[in-house]
Amino acid sequence: MSRDPRVDVYIDRAAPFAQPILTYLRDTIHAACPEVEEGVKWGNPSYSYHGIMCGMAAFKEHCGFGFWKSKLVVGDDSAEGMGQFGRVTSVRDLPPKKVLTGYVRKAMELNEQGITQAKPVKAKRKALPMPDDLRKALGRDKRAKSVFDAFSPSHQREYIEWITEAKSDETRSRRIGTAVEWIGEGKPRNWKYMKG
Known about the structure:
Blueprint lengths: L4 H9 L4 H15 L4 E5 L2 E5 L3 E7 L4 E5 L2 H4 L23 H16 L19 H8 L2 H9 L2 H12 L4 H16 L12
Antiparallel strand pairs: 1-2, 2-3, 3-4
Helix pairs in contact: 2-4, 5-8, 6-8, 7-8
């Protein structure tokens, strides 16, 4: 079993409550998968076997542990945001060693077979209705209208939201004037923050 010294340091620096949790997880993973590659990814201990398999992390008041292909390994009942087992504050919050070993072996099998977890399909956002005053202003500037029509839906949405969120008619009118100017120059709404 190869153990990464960086994980030793990570565990040593973790809060006292977290150290036995991290050690339990590490030992269980290594015992279930002797060929596992231990490392550090995204600043936290990570375990790979024919691809990334699982990872753990310690926070101020809890730990998190999760499988990369969580729904295929643990099922749909897992607590996504904190890993599959929610906020782990003691070893008792984790499955028994036999169950956890079964999960590790399932993750190994999925990786060996090259099975991937389907990515959730994002719901397509509905286009926002064009405010009449913006439509009229763009109608008076053919270049701006042409550029706006060529913008991606997200760039169009940014302008429409900026204008409709104005609290007063004066602000709304000023924003429409600025929008038509920027659009005519080919600038998306947040052009000031774009790298370039």
